[in-house]
Amino acid sequence: MTLSSAQPVARSRPAIAPEWFLVAVVLFWGLSFSLMKHWHMAAEEWSDGQVMLQAQSSLALMAVRMSLAALCMACFRPVVSFTRDRAAWTAGTCVGLSMWVGLGLQLLGLAFTTPAMSSFFTSLASFFAPVLLLALGVRQSPWLWAGLGVALVGGVVMVEGGWRFGSGEGLTALAAVFFGLQVVVLDRMGGGLNSYRLSLAFMTVNAVASVLGVAGLIAWEGNGPGFLTWLAAMLSQPAVLFDMLMLLALPTLLGFGWMNRYQPLVGAGRAALIYLLEPVFATAFSLAYSHETLGWHLLLGGILVLGGNLVGELGRDKSPLAEQPPLNPG
Questions:
Q1: pLDDT, tens digit, 9 for 90 and up, residues 251-265
Q2: Domain that holds residue 68
Q3: Taking Cα atoms as reference points, which of 137, 239, 188 lies closest to residue 1?
Q4: Is residue 324 in some structural domain?
């Protein structure tokens, strides 16, 4: 499998533009910041501020979340899931590994920062993705670069007044590099493939890597029985279990599933611009959960992010060929 985009195949424009599915993806991802923050808050007494235990807690969440997602997908469509498809599994593995590193760093960083700050630094992936594409010789329109600039300024404004750069923010900024890489890998490898099998591979590699990570930390800390007792107690709490089910259904199954299906139809540059809506949704949910307080900077920043998407839309290619995305079977 080479890093080359699939050639466009003539087809009618779908009834619902794929961009709207990516907007829904970002909405679900915005919710995930508050849900993951709740996990860390519930784990605070056990981890007691120790970085290794925080990492163990983060990987445990990823292991449970992704294992359940892979199991649900395999059981829901077993014939599709287990059809031999080397290309889809190769692409899903590459996309999944990039996402796994990013998610691990992001989730660990979220233990030391707020959902709004985490979402802003995560959104830097929207800058890294076009830069990586540029290194591969793929140019974006000046309008898209301008839109990214306006939206990033909006993200900066949204955290004005609570601005800081500590360990949590640093980990999340590093995570954004891998998220940007994931956007590019999916763009280069995902076109024309069966998105269901690609997503199953994506979930599976994340689940396996997370389980191995947890096992490694258990061996390092020597706390196997204590960790398993804590994890069972965590998952027996109704509030934690509800958050886990929400995280499984929306950001994971629908969010990552639609990302893998619809991003290759949109293109990495435009998808990166849409993904910059993430801080807006994350902050809205953070306000609803009382992790943040409403201020002028949140309103102005949100307007700028939306304005950046509008600026990027001005430079979008409206030619008939541009309206016919590459085929990406379900």
A1: 999 999 999 999 999
A2: 18-314
A3: 188
A4: no
Token pair recorded at residue 269: 């540059």
Q: Based on the structure, what is the number of domains in the chain?
A: 1
| Residue 55 in tokens | 């990492």
Query: Which of the pair, 198 or 150, is modelled with greater confidence?
Result: 198
Q: Is residue 3 part of a domain?
A: no
The answer to the question of residue 30 being in a domain is yes
Position of tokens 């304005």? 307
User: What are 12-45's pLDDT values in tens digits?
Assistant: 556 899 999 999 999 999 999 889 989 989 999 8
What does pTM read for this prediction?
0.87
